[in-house]
Amino acid sequence: MNRILKSYFYWTYPRGSFHYDVMVTLILLFIFVTPWMWDYGDKPRSTAAYTQPVQVVGDGGRGLVVTMQASDVNVPAAASDTEIRKALKKAMEPVLGDSMYVERWQLSRDQEGNPQSWKVWAHR
Question: What is the DSSP letter of 14?
Fold first, then answer.
C-alpha cells in the first residue's frame, strides 16, 4: 500500500495504465467539483442592491472617502462603534472588496433627523 501511494505521489505510472487514469480522474474531479463545494471568493459581486450610486473619491493619500445612502447600510438603532464599522465594511464590500479598513465615518441627517448618507474614510 505504501508503494502504491508513493507511486501516485511521484506519478510513476505509465500513460494509459489504470493508475494513471485514476490520478487524472481525481485531478479532473478536484478541478470541476470543488468550486461547487467551496467558495473561492472569485465570483463577481452585484451592485444592484444599492438605491443610489456609491461615490468613491481618493483622500489624497492611500485612503478613500466613500459616500453612500443610509438606506444601503444596515445599522441597528443603538449600535456600538464595532457594529457600525462592520456594517459599513459589509456595505462597501461589493464596490471595494473585503480588504478595506474603515478608519472613521460621519452620518449626515436630514432636517427631521432621519439618517441620509454615510461618509466613510477607509484605506487598504
Answer: P
Q: In this structure, are 59 and 29 located in the same domain? A: no
- Inside any domain, residue 44: no
pTM above 0.70, yes or no: no
The string of DSSP letters for 16-70 reads: TSHHHHHHHHHHHHHHHHHHHHS--S-SPPP-TT-SSPPEEEE-SSSEEEEEEEG
Are residues 32 and 76 located together in one domain of the fold? no
Domain of 11, in residue numbers: 2-37
**Residue-wise pLDDT tens digits, 108-121:** 998 998 888 989 99
Number of domains in the chain: 2
Q: What's the CA gap between 121 and 74, in Å, rounded?
A: 18
What is d(CA 21, CA 26) in angstroms, rounded to the nearest whole number?
Answer: 9
Cell of 5: 501511494
CB atoms within 10 A of CB 107: 14
Q: What is the pLDDT of residue 42?
A: 64
62 and 117 assigned to the same domain: yes
